[in-house]
Design a protein that fits this description.
The chain is of the alpha+beta class. It folds into 3 domains: 3-225, Up-down Bundle (Rhopdopsin 7-helix transmembrane proteins); 240-338, PAS domain (Beta-Lactamase), CATH 3.30.450.20; 344-425, Orthogonal Bundle (Helix Hairpins). The protein has 14 helices and 7 strands. The strands form 2 sheets. Strands 4-3-7-6-5 form a 5-stranded antiparallel beta sheet, with helices on both faces. A two-stranded antiparallel sheet has the order 1-2. The radius of gyration is 44 Å and the shape is rod-shaped. It starts with a helix and ends in a 15-residue tail after the last helix.
Length: 440
């Protein structure tokens, strides 16, 4: 038995162990589950390859080769894992994405099982039994092109994600995963494009196992799946009523539906934009930033924020700085609460209190006016009475006549003012009406 047969078996055992390692770190995390399924599919694929490579006869080798039909799902699972890791999809992704991911895999699996359009048999090589590809079949080339596109897409996604990533820890993770992704791409080319086949053993299983090893090392070394309660956190973010913004290096990397509803932006319009996109002005943005990074943090700070339409709205800001285990700033999380309704009620309440205070002042003034009027009315009646009485005994040409008339006129005017004060001091509504005295 040659070494290439053992390579398949060793790859199968390692992949199975890695799948269990990742799965039991967090059995509820979607990223863990998908990566574990990927490892288990490699393990199955490697075991089948081991069995037909070391088969004692053509018939036994052909039987085991017939069992090798799930490889398209291995390809689909690896791209699914990378899409989750690079934050292209999450637990709230619609069914269409899963349909696009797994329908081609299901199609090629059925073709592999039911026809000879992709594999037509086995052949004896120096490394054991191997499969014969149907290079004249269009479906064979379509499946290989699909697999090549998937592998190249993985590399593109990882490199693009690395350019956007600001976290040092995340960059170190990406270095290992990206290096690991190069291995299956380079080692699978002779199988995917047979014109490059140079009479060497198929190394897809071993190369995918190496990719799994690099990913698991990133898990162990740099805590790839650092948040064990990722599902819970994702659901909290998705369902919370307050707008939430997560930023790294002053760039927005995550918002929730409440944010898009409040500010009027689509998520794609704000991702990687500066956080001051919704600040009232640069000065206020700096004040908020200073409060955020001081020891006390940002707590219930009222501010004006600018929404997509340009309107300024009243909000309440709370936020804190996120740090990793190395005490480096990993990002900033900020919660934005819409307080427009509260401000409206506060304004109405202030106006109501103002009117109430004004009413109380008027009541006090009325009471004061009533008391003053009574105190003035009595002596003013005496003055008016004497002025009128004396005036009757003085002729019009007398020098005292005009002064007495002035006293009488001003006394009458004062009586009217007193009467008005008494009317003002009454709470009940007053009015003048004709009364028939005789009817009483």
């Amino acid at each position: 038995m040659n070494i290439f047969v053992f390579l398949s078996l060793i790859s199968s055992i390692i992949s199975f162990a890695l799948g269990n390692f990742v799965f039991y770190k967090n059995r509820k995390n979607l990223q863990h589950i998908i990566f574990s399924l990927f490892c288990f599919s490699i393990s199955y694929w490697g075991f089948i390859e081991f069995m037909y490579r070391q088969a004692e006869s053509f018939e036994i080798a052909h039987f085991w080769l017939e069992m090798n039909f799930i490889w398209p799902f291995t390809i689909a699972l690896i791209i699914h894992f990378v899409l989750i890791y690079t934050e292209k999809i999450n637990i709230h992704t619609g069914k269409l994405v899963y349909f696009l991911l797994y329908t081609p895999a299901l199609f090629f699996t059925i073709i592999e099982l039911a026809t000879d359009q992709m594999t037509i048999g086995v052949v004896k090589r120096y490394w054991g039994y191997s499969y014969l590809s149907n290079e004249k079949s269009l479906l064979f080339w379509l499946s290989n092109i699909w697999a090549l596109i998937i592998l190249l897409s993985i590399l593109f996604l990882l490199i693009s994600y690395r350019k956007k990533m600001m976290s040092t820890r995340k960059r170190k993770q990406l270095n290992y995963i990206t290096i690991g992704s190069f291995i299956p791409i380079l080692m699978s080319i002779p199988e995917i494009i047979p014109i490059f086949k140079l009479g060497i053993p198929e190394m897809s299983i071993s190369s995918l196992t190496w990719f799994s090893i690099f990913v698991c090392y990133a898990i162990w070394k740099y805590e790839l799946f650092v948040i064990d309660s990722a599902i819970i956190a994702e659901n909290i973010i998705f369902t919370m009523n307050e707008a939430l913004v997560i930023s790294v290096d002053n760039q927005i990397v995550k918002v929730n539906p409440a944010f898009t509803k409040l500010f009027g932006y689509k998520e794609s319009e704000v991702i990687r934009k500066k956080t001051d996109i919704f600040a009232k002005n640069e000065e206020e943005s700096k004040i908020i930033s200073d409060k955020l990074f001081n020891k006390e943090g940002l707590k219930n700070c009222e501010a004006k924020c600018k929404i997509k339409s340009g309107e300024l709205i009243d909000v309440e800001l709370s936020g804190s700085v996120l740090r990793d285990k190395y005490n480096e700033v990993a990002g900033v999380v900020m919660i934005i609460k819409d307080i427009r309704e509260r401000k409206k009620y506060e304004k109405e309440n202030t106006e109501l209190q103002r009117h109430l205070m004004q009413s109380e002042k008027m009541v006090a003034v009325g009471q004061l006016a009533g008391g003053v009027a009574h105190e003035i009315n009595n002596p003013m009646g005496v003055i008016l009475g004497f002025a009128q009485s004396v005036g009757k005994n003085i002729k019009e040409g007398d020098s005292l006549y005009m002064p007495l008339k002035s006293i009488e006129r001003e006394a009458i005017r004062c009586k009217k003012l007193v009467s008005n004060l008494l009317t003002f001091s009454r709470i009940e509504k007053t009015g003048i009406e004709i009364v028939e005295i005789n009817s009483a």
